[in-house]
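Run: sequence + flavin mononucleotide -> complex structure.
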Amino acid sequence: MTRSADHPIHAQFIPRHSPRAFASTEMSEGQMLQLLEAARWAPSASNNQPWRAAYGLRGDAGFATILAALNEGNRIWAGRASGLIAWASRSVVTREGQDRPNAWAAFDAGTAWGYLALQAQDMGMFAHAMGGFDAAVLAQSLDMPDDFTLHAVIAVGTYGNPADLPEDKRAGEVPNGRNAVGTWAAKGKFA
Ligand SMILES: Cc1cc2nc3c(=O)[nH]c(=O)nc-3n(C[C@H](O)[C@H](O)[C@H](O)COP(=O)(O)O)c2cc1C
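>> structure
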């Protein structure tokens, strides 16, 4: 691991990364519920909890459905995951019978996915989000309501053998770096 923090932070952050070499292991429904439970406790605007998820466990029909909607470059490795989760948010909030746009739905769904990823790591698993999927196909095959917006598919599982990956994907198994805080945050103004 070549990563290091410039300022002291909790030990959970630096090792979390998004590998592709999953091990084709099974996961239980209980483990999936643990991951979703972590997401449940994310903060959200007015506590609206707009995140929505549809999941499949390796070997079941839901897993096959979500896998089929991924683009080829993702399907090639995500098929070895233990679970796949379609991550969405409800774009409106219903109050007094009226639907109003929720401007923070995507922001809140992102926070919840982050919690899930850290929970996976705590359980000895990894989570890898993907934007490379056919949203129209996925929405239709999962019966997604019209007022939901799909954000990502999340692959979760245990680490396997990088040699199983196509050569062009192996280099990506080394955790990548980050821009220094000073390049994107500044005191009193935007950097
Ligand atoms: C919303 C989102 C979409 C992403 N889409 C893809 C994807 O389609 N395929 C892929 O291999 N990785 C994808 N990634 C993984 C990112 O490339 C990865 O998180 C980023 O390089 C930082 O690396 P790390 O997660 O290992 O720290 C995505 C990540 C996020 C959060």
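>> summary
DSSP finds six helices and six strands in the chain. The first strand starts at residue 51 and ends at 57.
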